[in-house]
Every structure is written in structure tokens, then in C-alpha cells.
Amino acid sequence: MTVETAIALAGYLLLMLGIGVYAWRTSTSNVSEFMLGGRQLSPAVAALSAGASDMSGWLLLGVPGAVYLAGLDAAWIIVGLVIGAWANYRLVAPRLRVYTEQADDALTIPDFLEKRFEDRSRALRVVSALVIVVFFTLYTSAGMVAGGKLFEASFGYDYRLGLVITAGVVLAYTLFGGFLAVSLTDFVQGMIMFVALLAVPAMTVWVLGGWTPTSAAITAVQPEHFSWLSGATTLGIISSLAWGLGYFGQPHIIVRFMAVRSVKDMPTVRRIGMGWMILSVIGAVFIGLAGTGWISAQGRTLADPETIFIVLAQALFNPYLAGFLLAAILAAIMSTISSQLLVSSSSLTEDLYKTFLRPAASQSELVLVGRLATLAVAMVAGILALDRSSTILGLVGNAWAGFGAAFGPVVLLSLHWKGLTRSGALAGMVAGAATVLGWLYLPFTIQGQAPSAFLYEIVPGVIAGFAAAIIGSKVSAGVSPKVLAGFDRMERSLG
């Protein structure tokens, strides 16, 4: 690593810490501010925060690596994600913003579900909080793996040292700044990611002499790279498109909708968010494609395809700009880790500690417990991330499926179907999560393949979640008049 690159990265890390200090001084006086920023996010901050927390290190490392290996066959995931994100903005965002505030100012998804269904048994809160903690610990470890790989591939540092540096900076601003720090840093990180995802493929194509020489260099080594169907199967395409189903159940994304300052801002949030996303994912795909041509033209080989962005940034840009581009990877990694840590700590604090251990806890005590919970989740995720052989896209895929199947059907039905009951919601969550875990870990095969290799686990998980929620609602006691009145009030508020 050159001195110039080190200076650029150090400047970025100091900026993140500075934002954390600012947020600590302005918005952590109570648990609502620590967990939701007082519901005062502007449209731009909300949109880029949702996008940056969604598009983690897998966008700059995992997706370009997959396209580098398989060409446009791997880009079906992107198609599914764009459709899913748009549907999430339309079907979930406005209703969740209104309903969570009307439901006694619910601060977390478990809190909302309990209040939405008047669940005095606390079963919904406990099950959903446990799902969040388990799958987010796995999700957070994926981000730490990406951080370790970045420092190892870019600077020659030990993988574990890179992991510690990544986790340490994220912990510093998340522990002290809370939700506002996470959202503001996500906004800055989203801008950095956006510039990097457009600059790297553009520079690669320019260095190769334009798009015609670039495409020739790609097809010379990978003749099928521009085909969407060369190695694809019907089930493979369905599995890739099914990633879009996961959006409805991702707590670290939909919690941004809860924090927007007004439901009237949602159309602006959607336009900014979708514009940012579409251009960013196109850039990620072209990094993988153009990177294939550049590696071929250089006569080089690439040991780890997930480092193609790093290789191009270091080879094609001066050290200061390379430092900025590598900071984009850190930005992607940190934005997601911080969001996941905060949602996990929110569930541990609000949904478990306050609910079962200290109902009368003061605001300052809850903020302290939230910080300790953040630290605990980070430590467990760090231990899991010590396995350097884990693939970023694989870890993200498992956690994404778990959340999508456990929460997606329940969130959609709770916002759009007044007939959903407490028992139906509980059955949907359990069935969705259990199906994903069974698909991943039970010892059986389908046509000689592991189930997850045959079909992405989110597909059977979401089907099971919807079926269990609907059947459970039909066979259980009816919905109380108070719950029905709350649903009707939400719909009236939306006009």
C-alpha cells in the first residue's frame, strides 16, 4: 500500500468516526433517537441509507466476482433485486411508516408485530427477535469476511487484522452515534459507492480502447459471457430472480421506512433509492465483464474472482484515487454491518431486555444496554468470520433467505390483509425460517444435489411462510375489533 492510498483511507475512516461523534452529541438521549433517529430522516438520507445498508460488500466484491466467472448468467440476481426493491417501496414503505407510528410508536419489527396483533403472550416478539439475532449474526459475519479480504488483497495485511480493523471502526461510530450515525454514514458511503461503481468500469473500458476492443477481449477468453442463457437452467433463473422476494423481510432495510420524517416523502425516497440502485448494480455487472477483458488483455490470472474490483482500482488509478475507490468497499461493508448491528441490538434491548428483564428501565439504561448488545453481536459475528474460506455471496444469500422467508410473508400480510391473526403470523414466521434452515442443513438431496444447489432456499421458505400464515389465520380465532380498527385507521391515513 502506498502512502497516498493510506492517507485517503485514513481520511475516510476519520470522517466516519467524526459523523459518529456528531450523532452521539445530537441524537442519543433516549432509546427512540438511538434506534430510529426520532423518525426525522430526510428522503435523500433515508433512500441512500436503505440502499447502502442493502448493497453491502457483496455489490463491489460478490457480484463482480460472480459475473467475472459466469458472465451475464450471474446477472439474473440483479434483475430480481431491482424488481423486489421497487415492490418493497410500493407495497411496504408507506404502510409501515404509518402503521408503526400508530401502533404506539413501535420501534422495531418485533415491537410492531406484537402491537399490531395485541399479542399479550409475547410469542411474536420473542420469535421474531430470535430470528433477527440469529440471521443478523450470520449476515454481519459476511461483512466482516469482506473487510478481511479487502485488507488482505489490497494491503497484504493478515486477514484477521483486516477483520479487526473493519469491525473496530464500525463499532466505534455505531456504539456511540446510534441510528443517526448509521444513517448519516450510510448516506456518505452510498455516495462513495455510487461514484466507484461507475468510475471503475468506465476507466477499464477506456484503458482497453473502448467498448469494441473490450468486448473482443472478453469473448476471446469467455465466448458465452454476454449470453443470459448459456449456462442457465429454468430453476437457476427462478432461484436468481427469487432474491427479490427477500426485500419484504429485511429488517435493516425496512426500518429505514419507519424512520422517514413523513409518509408524504415516500415517493421521493423511492425515486432516489431506485435511481441509485439501478445505476449501481449496472456498474457492478460491468466491473465483472470489463474486468474479464482487462485480465485477459494483460495475460494475467485471478486467484480470487471476488477481488476483481480491488485489482482494477489499484492497477488503473493513481494512489489517491485508488484509496478513495478502496474506501468504497469499506463503505459498502461498514454501512451494512452497522445497520445489522443496530437492528440486532435494538431487538436484544427493546424486545428482550426491556420486555422481560427490566420493564421499568430508564432511557439511559436502555441506551447503555443497546451499546453492550451491539458489542456482543459483533464479537460473535467476528468469531464466525474467522473462517476465511467463506464466500461473501454465499453467506449473504443464506441470511437473506432466512429473513425473506421468516418476515416477508408476515410483513406483507400484516400490512395488506386485515384477516391475518396472531397465530397466523407466528406460524408464518416459524414455517418460513424452519424451511430455510431445513433446506440448508437437513441431510437430503434432490436429483443428487444439495437442496440449496437445486433451488434457492428462499423459494420454498416464502411459499411455506405464506401458506402457514394464511392457514393459521383461517383456523384460529378471529381478529379482535380493536385490531381491525387499527388496520382501518392505517388505511384511512394513507388516503
From TrEMBL:
The alphabetized UniProt keywords are: Amino-acid transport, Cell inner membrane, Cell membrane, Ion transport, Membrane, Sodium, Sodium transport, Symport, Transmembrane, Transmembrane helix, Transport
Describe the reaction catalysed, as an equation.
L-proline(in) + Na(+)(in) = L-proline(out) + Na(+)(out)
Q: Where are the transmembrane segments?
A: 6-24, 67-87, 123-142, 162-184, 191-208, 228-248, 274-296, 308-333, 366-386, 392-413, 425-442, 454-472
Q: Does the keyword Cell membrane apply?
A: yes
- Please state where this protein is localized: Cell inner membrane; Cell membrane
Q: What's a GO cellular component annotated to this UniProt protein?
A: plasma membrane
Q: Which PROSITE patterns match?
A: NA_SOLUT_SYMP_1, NA_SOLUT_SYMP_3
> How does this chain sit within the bilayer?
Multi-pass membrane protein
The cross-references to NCBIfam families, in alphabetical order and at most eight, read:
Na_Pro_sym, sss
Could you identify this protein by its name?
A: Sodium/proline symporter
Q: Which organism is it from?
A: Polymorphobacter multimanifer
